[in-house]
Amino acid sequence: MKHRIVILGAGYAGAFSATFLARRLHPGDFEITVVNAEPDFVERLRLHQLAAGQELRHRPLTKVFAGTGIQLRPARVTGIDAEHRTVTVADGDGVDRLEYDTLLYALGSTIADHGVPGVDEHAYHVAARPAALRLRARLDELDEGGRVLVVGGNLTAIETATELAESRPGLRIGLVTRGELGAWLGPEARRHLLRAFDRFGITVHEYTAIERVEKAAAIAADGTALTADAIVWVAGFAVHPIAAAGGLRVESNGQITVDRQMRSVSHPNVYAAGDSVFVIGDNGLPYPMSCASAGPTSKAATAAIIGDLTGRKVAPTAFSHLGNHISLGRNDGLFQLVDGDGRAKPGALCGRTAARVKSAIISAAAWAVSHPTFGKPNHRYRLAVTREHAPSRAAG
């Protein structure tokens, strides 16, 4: 009987891991199944563009996985049972249970409402394709001068506000943040950011905490009502509660607790990658939930899975964080380098060049999903251990 590998999620981390494993493990020994709610590979880093009204390239997972032998299961993950090694999924035909020998958990993250009343009922977001399309439909309904309020001061909030302002100049865009906009940036990058907001005519409300969301207003802690026709909630991200409910050991924020090779500390046959995993970076700080986490965590997880199942030595993975890359519409952007302690360096790459570099990086990431072993020897490793596999030795 083949060793059953089930991968939950087909975002950047999940899809890349699936295709990499399929091209490295012998099909006679392994069976790989990917469960994903969407039939397509969704470029989450471009969802603010989709919400703004732009069309994104269609990337069916059947095409991404073509020729790999991966079994795609379009379904929504509703639960896992780590003790009995099963995953519960739901689709149009009902509920089903999948059994696994090895599980890779890559379900990513969703919006963090921070317990603020009204977010689920009244706010829009861009953390998933259906949500971005829902926001897009709402924006299409607005007349000239319609008001949109973006709640949040992080990278996604900044990108969403500027994208909407550029793509829909007839709308009045505002952004509200509990701190100072771009406070983590260096002087040059922050000046560039503020100039961009001025150019787009985006109204900024700093040092304003939102305590309640209503249908047409966000209510601040001091009682001020910031009225809007659409409220876009991008005030951080949170992981799905499925891991904790399934018996995996998690951190206080719900991220899966793993060793340095992305192996669950409570269930060694479960691995995690992407936003779902809690890992300390090389600088001693928690690795951020961001596009930057998908590459290193999926690389570490796939290396560990291959090593544990085939007896090969697992090479360590570096978890460095170079900086923040922010798009400011399609023709502007900035890249802020950080030092070893995660603090902004004085200089920054700004303007059209920064925008082009980021666009190229995102396009390369999408291409890499279906070409994970490009330029590497095409080895197919055989199963060398039983399903009760023991963790392999790390190199170094």
TrEMBL record:
Keyword annotations = FAD, Flavoprotein, Oxidoreductase
Q: Does the keyword Transmembrane helix apply?
A: no
What top-tier enzyme class does this entry carry? Answer: oxidoreductase
Q: What is its EC number?
A: 1.6.99.-
Cofactor(s) the protein needs: FAD
Q: Does the keyword Oxidoreductase apply?
A: yes
Domain (FAD/NAD(P)-binding) ranges = 4-277
GO terms of biological process kind: aerobic electron transport chain
Annotated family: Belongs to the NADH dehydrogenase family.
Its protein name is NADH dehydrogenase-like protein YjlD
Specify the species. Answer: Nocardia aurantia
